[in-house]
Every structure is written in C-alpha cells, then in structure tokens.
Design a protein that fits this description.
Elements (H helix, E strand, L loop, with lengths): L3 H14 L5 H11 L4 E5 L6 E5 L6 H13 L20
Antiparallel strand pairs: 1-2
C-alpha cells in the first residue's frame, strides 16, 4: 500500500520531469524534506504555489522549523486544517 506521502513525492517527480516545476518549488520541497514533510507543486506550476502535507505524526517543532526556514527564504506560509477527519482506512 502506498502512503499519501509517497504519492506526493511520485507525483512531484513526474511533474518535475515534465518540466512544469520551478527552482523555487524544488527549494520548498528540499526545505520541507529536512523535517520529513512531503510537498509538491499545485496549480499550474511554474513557481506559483506548493502544498506540504502535515500529518498527526509531525511535531509542532518540525512544523515551526520548516515554516521558519521557508520564511527565511522569502516564502509566504499558510497553515490550514481540514474541517472533517477525511478519508479513513481500516483492515477489518
């Protein structure tokens, strides 16, 4: 079973190989990866916007560190939460 994080990495790799990524997006991905946070471009690419998946397993320390590193590089960060629990999977 592939985890969502693996799918994010795979998808970003495919988008990058198609040439729709951007050096600024690759920088975001590199910064988030240092804290085991997976990110990818969203929208049309070309340097516009990226999202990073924060899971319940990420500590506030990791989140704060990645946000600080991103902001120090000149990126603007927004943190949002889902209004519901989302998809749940059970092997029952």
């Amino acid at each position: 079973m592939l985890l969502l994080q693996e799918l994010i990495d795979t998808n970003q790799g495919l988008l990058s190989s198609l040439g729709v990524s951007h050096p600024s997006l690759e920088k975001i991905i590199s910064i988030t990866a240092k804290q085991q946070i997976h990110a990818k471009l969203t929208g049309a690419g070309g340097g516009g916007f990226a999202f990073a998946l924060l899971t319940p397993w990420h500590s506030q320390k990791q989140i704060d560190a990645v946000k600080e590193d991103l902001e120090n590089e000149g990126f603007i960060c927004w943190e949002t939460k889902l209004a519901v629990d989302g998809v749940q999977f059970s092997l029952e």
